[in-house]
TrEMBL record, chain A:
Superkingdom in the source lineage: Bacteria
Natural source organism: Solidesulfovibrio aerotolerans
Residue ranges of domain Homocysteine biosynthesis enzyme sulfur-incorporation in the record: 21-378
Protein name (database record): Homocysteine biosynthesis enzyme sulfur-incorporation domain-containing protein
From TrEMBL, chain B:
Pfam families (alphabetical): Fer4_7, NIL
Gene3D superfamilies: 3.30.70.20, 3.30.70.260
SUPFAM superfamilies xref list: 4Fe-4S ferredoxins, ACT-like
Ranges where the 4Fe-4S ferredoxin-type domain occurs: 83-112, 114-143
InterPro entries membership: 4Fe4S_Fe-S-bd, 4Fe4S_Fe_S_CS, ACT-like_dom_sf, NIL_domain
Name assigned to this protein: 4Fe-4S dicluster domain-containing protein
Gene Ontology MF, one: metal ion binding
UniProt KW keywords: Iron, Iron-sulfur, Metal-binding
Length: 388, 147
């Protein structure tokens, strides 16, 4: 396909370095494309910044806590009593955001509170707090130590990266509950008989709604991650390369995902928040911003997506979801959800957000400032992520 | 929403009933005997168990005080609600999850600004948000003793 406007990432980067790049947030871009049309918008705008701030369970911290003689090959590792996966090299471990301490009351008194878990360890470390490291081992000739227990801070760690096997879900379900009792889900509390509908994503600000075919986002894409710098590692787990799409190319179900990694030491706790989801468990909410280079008029068109163009499936989490029934109760637009009320089975239902739009916008704006100030350059993906 | 006369009281209180008092129409006596207006914001009364009720009382100050004393005389726990719930604004991420279960709409999403607003005047201190808020930004203050 030939384009009227053709720019390269290198050209855009040169403009960023000179402080001349025109950068808009995804929200600002909606109106710009509407006003100028996609071709003129593509000529005038170089980068669109997206942002999202949602809980995503598939998150965790990969860390190396360093040796302290006599050396140790940790077989069991806990931070503040939350177990980490230690089946790696001697002092490497991975702590999952949803991991819970052994003595957590879980859902014994339903709905459980899940006050502290892996995500809280990560947030505590980022806030500069010391956490209690506990290691157990069996002892080898080269690693004789059997136990190690001490306080450790993020600064003490040799390495700490947030590593999220899945993030940035492109579209998601709107959750309702058709049963006659309240349920507590990862989509928040759902009152009986569909008396509330909970929805996620940041709509027109969401990264993957602005590049629905992942034309500019791939392995190696530099991103704003939790207030620091991160990179896309490729497709996330459960990535769906061939979703059903509407006429604008927007998937109409939960589909694309990204795997992300970033240096935790460069992040800011304002954008990395542990969340305790009542009756469900612990998760990690994180601010992610992805810059989209406006290489041509197609990218201007895609980034011009508005909340009204985004359709989301309404799903029953009372019966259907836990039983693996894929039934959708219909599509609603993000704009309808944002208005505070949607129709579910013909009945007016309050729509409750789970993604912080305020924080999502803040992320997009922060990323915009960084690019405008020449502090953040774009990258070209090393490998594309399949999406058709 | 304060009433124009400054001697009028408008208070939200949280009541706890011992099991044996749950069935009695003591709350109705607030208006019958003491001339106070009240509205029930939230109630959980199960026969033979401790009951809880959050009510809004309006009326002259002395009548309010007599009414409260009357309830206490009948072994009803009374805690003024205004100080019982507060939000840590630095912690709130304005996600909106709490608005799902807030029975009084004291927590509500402002569609324009996308901020979740907390109106402690309307709050019945039912405590729902303190359980639901994923970052524990809603706090139940315990200074008043009960809870
Ligand atoms: S649930 Fe908590 S963090 Fe979210 S808007 Fe309500 S008070 Fe704020
Ligand atoms: S305690 Fe929380 S949920 Fe209950 S009325 Fe007050 S703000 Fe709403």
């Amino acid at each position: 396909m030939t384009h009227e406007v053709k720019k390269t990432v290198a050209e855009i980067n040169r403009r960023i370095e000179k402080g001349k790049a025109v950068v808009l947030t995804a929200a600002e871009m909606v109106e710009t494309v509407r006003r100028l049309g996609k071709v003129r918008a593509a000529k005038e705008v170089d980068v669109v910044t997206t942002g999202t701030f949602s809980p995503m369970c598939s998150s965790g911290m990969l860390f190396n806590f360093g040796q302290e003689p006599p050396t140790l090959k940790a077989q069991k590792v806990r931070l503040n009593n939350v177990p980490a996966h230690a089946g790696l090299a001697a002092v490497d471990a991975y702590i999952g955001a949803t991991e819970l301490p052994k003595d957590d009351p879980l859902n014994k008194v339903h709905p459980g509170r899940f006050k502290y878990g892996g995500a809280h360890v990560i947030e505590d470390l980022l806030r500069g707090k010391a956490v209690r490291l506990f290691c157990e081992s069996y002892g080898t000739d080269c690693y004789p130590r059997r136990t190690l227990e001490k306080d450790i801070t993020l600064a003490d760690m040799k390495y700490a990266a947030l590593f999220n096997p899945r993030n940035c879900y492109q579209n998601y379900n709107v959750a309702v509950n058709l049963t006659s009792r309240i349920i507590y889900t990862y989509m928040g509390p759902l009152k009986p008989n569909a008396r509330n509908a909970n929805y996620a994503t940041a709509g027109e600000l969401s990264p993957l709604f602005n590049d629905p075919y992942l034309k500019t986002i791939g392995l190696g894409t530099r991103i704003f991650m939790g207030g620091g710098i991160g990179y896309v590692m490729g497709a996330g787990t459960q990535h769906d390369p061939k979703p059903k799409r509407n006429e604008r190319g927007i998937p109409i179900s939960a589909s694309g995902t990204l795997m992300l990694k970033g240096d935790l030491k460069g992040m800011n706790a304002r954008y990395v928040r542990a969340v305790s989801i009542l009756g469900y468990g612990v998760s990690l909410a994180m601010g992610i911003g992805i810059p989209i280079p406006i290489l041509n008029e197609d990218m201007a068109f895609f980034t011009g997506v508005s909340d009204a163009d985004i359709q989301m499936p309404v799903k029953d989490y009372g019966h259907d979801y836990p039983n693996g029934v894929g039934r959708s109760l219909g599509l609603v637009t993000y704009a309808e959800c944002r208005s505070g009320e949607i129709l579910v089975n013909g009945k007016k239902t309050p729509a409750v957000p789970l993604t912080s739009l305020t924080m999502s916008l803040e992320v997009a704006q922060k990323l915009k400032e960084q690019i405008e100030q020449g502090k953040f350059l774009l990258t070209e993906p090393v490998e594309a992520i399949p999406s058709e | 929403m304060d009433t124009p006369q400054d001697k009028q009281y408008r208070k939200v209180v949280y009541l706890t009933f011992p099991p044996e008092a749950s069935g009695k129409p003591l709350v109705c006596d607030l208006s019958r005997v003491h001339g106070l207006a009240f509205s029930i914001l939230q109630a959980r009364i199960t026969p033979r168990h401790e009951g809880q009720m959050t009510i809004e009382i309006t009326g002259p100050r002395d009548a309010y005080e007599r009414g409260i004393a009357y309830l206490k005389d009948h072994d009803i726990g009374v805690v003024p609600v205004a100080q019982r719930i507060s939000r840590d604004d630095d912690s709130c991420i304005h996600c909106g999850m709490c608005t799902a279960l807030c029975p009084t709409k004291a927590l509500s999403l402002n569609i324009e600004t996308r901020l979740v607003e907390f109106d402690d005047e309307t709050c019945s201190a039912c405590g729902m948000c303190t359980k639901v808020c994923p970052v524990k930004a809603m706090e139940m203050l315990l200074e008043n003793g009960v809870m």
